[in-house]
Amino acid sequence: MISQPSRYCTVELQALPARIGQVRRIVSAQLRYWHLDPLIDQAALGVTELLTNVHRHAQPDKVCTVEIELLLDRLTVSVHDHDPRLPEVNDAEPFETCGRGLAMVAAVSESWGVRPHGETGKVVWFTLPAPSQAAALPTYPVYGAATAGPFADLDTGAPDALADAPGHAPARSAVVG
Predict the structure, then answer these.
(1) Dihedral (C-alpha) 49, 55, 59, 63: value to the nearest 10 degrees?
(2) Angle between helices 40-57 and 101-108 (to 10 degrees)
């Protein structure tokens, strides 16, 4: 049985350099909340490249919407802007400092693409395979049940009744600094 077949998050912004960094942190925090930590680096790189393209090329404005959706075993990250011109993958020269964004998105993603969105605008998207639920959730030892490692011989002082109780995961921040 699938308890949460779909998860969805959207952020609307102006693609300015400071906002791009904020959205990268929002995407990272959302993936951490969904226990998809293994996808954070790829998703953050991809969304950064797509938002940088909006910042550099989109006309008439820099307003865009970032959507991330987890549907079963697939994470889709998409950026919608108001410029109807479709992006092109360029062959950048070895010493050029720009022109590799879409090639990097293609390299880190499972698939990517672009589609027109109505009369004005487009959506550029990429997908990443989501790890299985078992791989996505780290396992933590039960409190007081150290059986191996440097603390195995220590007396935790926990009563035997607590040793069998389910443990709690250590506190983690949902916001990347």
Answers:
(1) 100
(2) 160
Contact 74, 130 (CB under 8 A): yes
Helix (H) or strand (E) holding 25: helix 17-33
| AA identity, residue 118 | G
CA pair distance 113, 53, nearest whole angstrom = 14
* Cα 68 to Cα 9: distance, rounded to the nearest angstrom: 5
Residue 141 DSSP class: P
Nearest CA among 27, 52, 56, 55 for reference residue 41:
27
Q: How confident is the model at residue 174 (pLDDT cuts 50, 70, 90)?
A: very low
Q: Which of 6-20, 77-91, 119-133, 150-164 has the lowest mean pLDDT?
A: 150-164
The arithmetic mean of pLDDT across residues 27-53, rounded, is 95
123 pLDDT higher than 50: yes
Q: Please, what sign has the CA dihedral across residues 139, 126, 4, 177?
A: positive
More confident site: 125 or 156: 125
Q: What is the pTM of this model?
A: 0.70
User: Distance from CA of residue 16 to its chain's centroid?
Assistant: 19
The CB-side HSE value for 50 (13 A sphere, CA atoms) comes to 34
